[in-house]
Amino acid sequence: MKIRNILIIILLLALVLRVYGLGDQSIWIDEGFSSYATKNIIEKGIPLMDSGREYNSYSAFHYPLAAFAITFGFSDVVLRFYSVIFGLLMIYLAFILGKEFFGSNRIGLFAAIIIAFSIWEIGWSRQIRSYQQLQFFFFLSLLFMKRLFDKPNFKYALLFLVSSYITILTHPFGYSLIGIFIIMFLFYLIFERKKFISRIKQLLVEKNISKTSKILLSIITFGLLAFLLFISANLFLKLNPNGLNYATKYFLFLKSDYRMLFYLGIIGFFLSLQNYKKTLFITLAFIIPYIFITNYVYLIQFRYLFLLFPVLTLFTSVIIDRILELKTKRFNLILQIILLGIIFLTIFSSGFVLIPEKTVFLERETPQPNFKGAYEFILENDSNNSTLIAANTVPAILYYKNPDFWLRYSLTGKPINYTSDVYTGSPAIINLNNITSINSSYYLVIDQLGMNRINPEVREYINNNLSLEWSDASNYWSKIWVFKNT
Question: Phi and psi for 255 in degrees, rounded to 5?
C-alpha cells in the first residue's frame, strides 16, 4: 500500500477519535476563557469582557477562531473543531518531520501513527485552547528553520518568519524558537562556515541584489540578530527572578505518565547522533522550551509539556525503524516481531486509544468539572430566577447567565485583592459577612479548585449551612457541587 493511502487512513481514523462526542463534555475553566474571548470578539470586535478589561492573550488563536465561529456558528463543537483541524495537520506534519530530519518515510509514518492515537494529542485536539495550534506552528517553524539553514533563500526566510510570528502570537512559548535559531545560526557559522557563507553569497549574487541593497540587508540581518540576542538573554540567560526550577517535577511527570516513550526517546536520541546536525534541531526543540517552562513559568502545569510531545514520538520512531532494518534471517525476523510487539503493546497499553471516547481527560491535576451539567440542573429546577453565586464566572455566563456574585479565589494561588471578578465584573464574596448578608434565594456553584482556595470561613459556612442539590465527580480535581440556601 502506498504511503499516501496509509496516511489517509490514519488521518480518517484520527478524525473519528477527535470528533466523536465532541460537544458532549463540558467546557472547563481554561476553555471557558478562550470561548468567552472569542464570543466577545464576535460581538464587539475585540476581546473586551463584561468587566471592562480585554483578554489580550493568544491573539493569533482567538481572532482566527472567532472568524471560524462566524462562518460555522458559535458552539462548543465548532470552537473545538478548530483545534481538531490543527490536530490532523500535526499528524501530517509529524510524517514530514520524520522524513525531513531523519531521511525516512517509515520514521515519519510511525511518528504520525503515535500522534494519531495518543490520548494526549486527541485530548488537546478537542479543547478550545491554543496548545494544539501552538504545537503545529512551533514544529512548522522548526521545519522552515532547518530548510533555511540548509538552503538559504528568501522563500524559506519568509516562511520561517511568518510561521514563527504566528507561533509567538499563539502562545509565549513560541519565543523559545529564538533560542533555537540563535544556537543553530552559531552552529552553522562555526562548523559549516565556508559552506554556509558561500550559500548566502550565492543567493545574493543569483538575485542580482545591488551593493546598496546588500549593505542594507546586512544591517537589517545583524540588527535582527542583535535584537534576537537581546530577547534571548532576557528570556533564557538572565538569573531567574523568582528562583523557580520545576525541572525535576516535569521530568518525573514524563517518566511516570509516558514511561515507554520517555525511555525509547532517549535511546532513539543516541541512535540518531550519527546525523548530529539534524538531531540537534529536534533536540533543541525539546531542551529550549523545557528550560523556558521549568524556569520561567510560575505555575506547574503538566499540559505545558504537550508542546514537546512530538520530539518523543520522533525519537521513539527511530527505534522502531532501526528494528525493522535488522537483517531478515529467520532468527532476526522473530526478534523483530517480538521487539516490535513489546514496544507497541507497551505504548498502546497506556496513554493511547483505538476506540472513540466521548469523555477525554487531560493530564492529572488539570481540572475538568462538569459546568454544563451544573447549570443544566439549575435551569431545570430554578423557576424563580434565583441569585447566582459562582466560583468560576466564565462557564456561568456561557452556560447560564452573568453571576450576581463571584466567590473569590485565586486561580494561580498567588494573593489577590480584587473586589470584583476580572472577567464578568461580578462583585466578590470575600469573607463570611459577604455571604451571610445575602438575603435572597440563591444557587452557589463551586468546583474542587475553588473549594480548596476560598476563604476557610466561607467554605465552612457553605458545607454546614447550605443544601447540596447536585454534584458530579469524574476525578478529584473535577469535582463540582451546586448548593442552595434554604
Answer: -65, -35
**pLDDT of 295:** 83
Domains: count for the chain: 2
CA-closest candidate to residue 57, choices 90, 82, 30:
30
Given strand 480-484, what is the order of strands in its sheet? 428-429, 405-407, 387-390, 442-447, 480-484, 467-472
CA dist 271 and 278 (Å) reads 12
Shared domain check, 463 and 344: no
Please give the pLDDT value at position 153: 82
Q: Whats the size of the chain, residue-wise?
A: 486
Same domain, 446 and 327: no
Residue with cell 520517555: 262
- Residue 139 CA to residue 177 CA, distance in Å, equals 10
Q: Is 195 domain-assigned?
A: yes
Find the DSSP H helices in 154-275: 154-170, 176-191, 193-206, 211-232, 247-257, 259-271
- DSSP letter for each residue of 92-136: HHHHHHHHHHHS-HHHHHHHHHHHHHBHHHHHHTTSSSSHHHHHH
Same domain, yes or no, for 338 and 193? yes
Question: 340 by DSSP, 3-state: which?
Answer: helix
Same domain as 284, residue 194: yes
DSSP result, 319-377: HHHHHHTS--SHHHHHHHHHHHHHHHHHHHHSSB-SS--S----STT-----HHHHHHH
pLDDT for res 239:
45
The residue to which cell 490514519 is assigned: 10
Residue 78: predicted pLDDT: 97
CA–CA gap between residue 82 and residue 86 (Å, rounded): 7
Place of cell 525539546: 286
Which residue type is seen at 368?
Answer: Q
Rg of the chain over Cα atoms, rounded to whole angstroms, equals 25
Per-residue b/e over 159-182, b at no fewer than 16 CB within 10 Å?
Answer: bbeebbebbbbbbbbbbbbbbbbb
Using the CB atoms, write b or e for 304-326: b if 16+ within 10 Å: bbbbbbbbbbbbbbbbbbbbeee
Q: Are residues 344 and 446 in the same domain?
A: no
Tell me whether residue 283 is in a domain.
Answer: yes
Query: What residues in the chain have per-residue pLDDT under 50?
Result: 237, 239
3-state secondary structure of 22: coil
Grid cell locating 401 = 447567565
Place of cell 525509547: 264
- The domain containing residue 189 runs over which residues? 3-23+75-349
Claim to verify: residue 131 and residue 177 sit in the same structural domain:
yes
137, three cell numbers: 506552528
Centroid of chain to Cα 197: 37
Q: What's the pLDDT score for residue 396? A: 97
- Residue 31 CA to its chain's centroid (Å): 12
Amino acid at 11: L
State the number of CA atoms in the 13 A half-sphere of 330 facing the CB.
0
**Contact present, 408 and 450 (Cβ < 8 Å):** no
